[in-house]
User: Fold these one by one.
Assistant:
Number 1:
Amino acid sequence: MRLATWRTGEREGRIVIGDHVLISPGTHIVASEEIRIGSNTMMASGCYISDSDWHDTYDRTAELDKHRPVQIGENVWLGVRAIVGKGVSIGDNSIIGAGAVVTRSIPANCIAAGNPARVVREFDPTRPFRKREALFGDPEKLERDMDNLMRYQLRENTALGWLRSVFAPTRSD
């Protein structure tokens, strides 16, 4: 995961991240001006969010005015390798499909997909959403669940298995 800001003259990039946000591996968030990410947002692996083109078309040594802030609302879900470009706003509760390229703002309560991303479905705004913050409401339960998950993931990881893989490795090692 990479978070980066850039300083140009008096302007310094800024990234603001809300509570209970999930940022998966391989995601890059790069700000020349400002990127705001609302609480309970989820970003799958390999997302890219930038508020700038970083170089002018003809002067490739300067950014010039090729930057505009990005606003990602609360409870947004960005699919694997989604790209969010400069000047975009994504409304609360919206989902951006895997591989989508968001070049224009997306309203709240919808699913957008494609290149360029467009709205493909709208949600019922009266139906409630269960947000990521609910996971953290009972810290003891969360700790138990995480412990059980770790035990499950390591269930075949034994000392005997490790010794075998060192002294008699197979193709599956």
Note: The chain has a mean pLDDT of 93.
Number 2:
Amino acid sequence: MRRASVRVRAALGATVVVALALVAAGFFVVATLRDGLAGTARLGAENTARSTAAQAGHTARGAIPDLDGLDGDEPVQVVDASGRVLGASDPLEGRGPVADFARVDKPDEGDGGSDDDGGDDDGDGVEVDSDSEHKTLSFPVDDDGDVTYDKDDIVGSQDFSVAAVQGRTRDGTPVTVYAGASLGAQQEAVSTVTRSMLFGLPVLLVVVGGVTWLVTRRALRPVEGIRQEMSAITASTDLSRRVPEPEARDEVARLARTTNETLAALQASVERQRRFVADASHELRSPIASLRTQLEVAAAHPELLDVDGAVEDTVRLQALAADLLLLARLDAGERPAGKRVSLAELVREHVAQRAGDPHPVRLLALDDGEVLGSAGQLARVLGNLLDNAQRHAASRVTVRVRREGGGTLALAVEDDGAGVPEDERERIFERFVRLDDARSRDEGGAGLGLAIARDVAERHGGTLRAEDSEAGGARFVLRLPGADG
């Protein structure tokens, strides 16, 4: 199954997240609004009930109907302990008790009051607060939302928050005052907010999804340009081309720069490989041609066979093939073995085997110390450095091993020859590079020794550099991290 594009997934993800957030926020807003308006209605009903109860405390039982609190449009009733309505506002005029959920205080003994405690007729067993209690009751209302019991005016019912407050008249009669406040405003406000959210949420989600899709499309446009250019580079195999880099300093711009850096490295690697193949072919052509010539001459004139020359060409060919094979392994990322190797011991053993060198090799201070790596590859580095020194030395070659700061071991090979010009000290480590073009290949080699030595040094985590020599010639220093460093 084909997956949706990044733009579609980003738009859907943003829409889902916003939808969840809005739904949660909507529930919170509606609940807060409902509770707030309900609390306002309860407070209004309680204030009306307390105000009317306070007025009843200064009024005789018979004057209850004339209380100021009973002349409004809100449902208000004053009921005695026996359930008799002593007074009511206009909407409840002539009606029986609209509620009976507040316990009326029993009259003191001897005051002639009723023993009826006005128990809760709903049977809900609610413990009545001595000050007030609230319930939500439904009353029939007209089209203005006012309470009415006229059948011709009733258009429906509406919830009211009803508060019950106990009190006594001036003559000691215990009464309960019921006052109601409409919850219509609360219900209308909640309904309006809910409808607004239900209609506005889809529109908002469409806007969020569309904006996210457009923004993502704009943000990914450079990525599409990079993809198209990479596809064109792959099709044309032209590694000199580069992908466009956006001007913005964002992740896409860094991706483009990294891609171009990768292309540059790949181009350099391919060019180096091509140059290596060309140089290797050129270097192999000479000994092969020479060997073929000698064999052809020997076939026609056996008495003219130069055996020594044929052997020498064969040895050169074998050495060059070995160098090319080692370079191929190093280029393939071959890592050296992690064995402990004593550089001082390696120098002693290797120098002892070079008794036929044209110039004597003098061993200076050889500090003790070990490195991790391949003894064979490190011996190859030392041999290449000594071969190079023997070719350029005037009279002598020196070798030393010393311990430097940070546990580094430095192996230095010096000669008293002409030295290496400072501006050429890096170029000599390139493959097939020989500074003296007039030199014959027999004397100068193929120009792979120093390149191999540096590659091996780097594979061992070290460095190989050409430096100034106190003897005036060339000085090559191999630095490797110590095994105990």
Note: Confidence is low (pLDDT under 50) at residues 102-130, 437-444.
Number 3:
Amino acid sequence: MTRPVPTFQGRTEPARGAARIPVQKTGSGPAPAVRRPEVDADRWPDVARPPSAGAARTAVARHLVGRALERLALTGPPARGPRLVLHDADAFYRRIGDGGLIGFGESYTAGEWDSDDLAGVLTVLAAHVDELVPAPLRRLRALWVSARPTADRNTRSGSRDNIQRHYDLSNDLFAAFLDPTLSYSSALFTALPARFDTLAAAQHRKIDRLLDLADVGEGTRLLEIGTGWGELALRAAARGARVTTLTLSAEQAALARERIAAAGHGDRVDVQLRDYRDIEGRHDAVVSVEMIEAVGAEYWPAYFQALRRALAPGGRIALQAITMGHRQMLHTAATHTFISKYVFPGGLIPSRRAIAEHSAAAGLRTAADDGYGEHYAETLRLWRERFAANRTAVTGLGFDPVFQRMWDFYLAYSEAGFRSRYLDVRQLLLTDGTHRR
């Protein structure tokens, strides 16, 4: 099995730092598909060359996947709806025969197939994922999927490496597709589709709802696990809270401190480069937004125990978490995927059942649990449009066409997960079962 290639290798020269780049509003739709990008084999060895899959595996992939694509009207005679266009069918089926879904994603990244509606194609596939392979053959999935690399385990050092491989790519890369709040999690809109909200306003609505869930106000001692670029800490400080916020990303920490100081809240917010397992002190409220996905199933007990230790009696914990079905989570936990290989090493989306069981084992009670996955689909659509509109800026930061197609696929794949309801996003309130006086 080939060693996973860190995503920062898609950059042709260093581009780190907190400098601002203007958002170029060159259009709202996706950029034209780039076919067969020139692939640097040193940076992207598994993208550069289709694998030497055996003839039998390739034939099975061609038969099963080809029939499924035709049955779902994604290929074959012209029809209404999203279309998957094969430029190199042989390489496409060889990759799938060798690596399953990793091969499917690498084939797109290599330009061997395209679509004028990538999210639409992936949504159809996600909605029918259980039908793509006949039931008897699903029991043999271990024969063509790879196990997750042990190097991606979220030990203390492993967590730092995994976080840096994604969040320390470049602050300017994220600024190219996020809104001015630099919020990298689902927004909450007043209505869908998002005709009446700016993305920034919808992100503030999401943040304010979490702060309300945690009862954050004047004098609240708030712990945030997962700083991002500091927007939640800023809004909590504006309410009069005293905030300790933790991150493992040096890039995020530097820009968050800069933004917090510029807003005049430097005396109220302490940004720490610290692992959640090393939390100190007790807090009236704890908030963690889409950070549990980076913890890994092996460490979910430690995560919830850390939350419980950090909570003062009668305190409240507000979590925002992406979720998937429990059976799907168990399969994903045992499988190396395109996303774990190229985008979020060590990451795993939990199920609601897993969250409930681990939080209860830590002595926490679920007092509220609300989902709004369709809002995440809309958030991702807007990010994807901004990423396409700012392609020139992304190229200027040193991110090559292979990286850009990889992130096109990642954003569309994620959007499809929510549009098909394969994924959801939840806001939860956890308590210790006591009441604050």
Note: The longest strand covers residues 311-324.
Number 4:
Amino acid sequence: MEQEYKWRADQALLGGALLWASSRIGSQSRTIHMKSRYFDTADGFLKLRGAALRLRQENGVSVCCMKLRDETTPEGCRTHEEYQCEAETLEDGLLLLPGKGAPETLCAEAAKAPLMEQCAVDFMRVAILLQEHDTVCELALDQGELRRNGRAAPLCEIELEFLAGDAQVFHALASELAEHLSLEPEPDSKLKRAMAL
């Protein structure tokens, strides 16, 4: 299960989050160009099953990802299953994802379905690895564009994802960051916002 907080941002808030992270001991950062394409059938086969399917280029590396059972708390913490593998095509990804824990039947049905690109997101991510004692999380500062059917909208957000350790420490870090910058939770995923264009 993946746990993450997502907040709305602007250029100033991205800069503030970067300063907050840089002041912490042991922070490490890298920049990633991410180009995501989301797929489903015309009648929403995956959406009806609570699933999202994505093929994303991450600095030129192609990664296939399936997400399931997305839930959001009032505080903005999102919890969902996420499975991913390196794959150049959706076909290859759907063959490999069950080996990563994704539902085999759903992957097999999706592989036979007439999947089409639904929307895309193109953005730059500054990913900062944070460690607080034995707890590790990643702060992501995302800025780019949501796209669908020739329409586009800007993307600017902050995410904090739990990687390992004590979940309570992770939640405390999220609370500290949100209070420090007066952040407003972003309740909708990139996919949902792109599909609303």
Note: The CA atoms of residues 150 and 197 lie 9 Å apart.
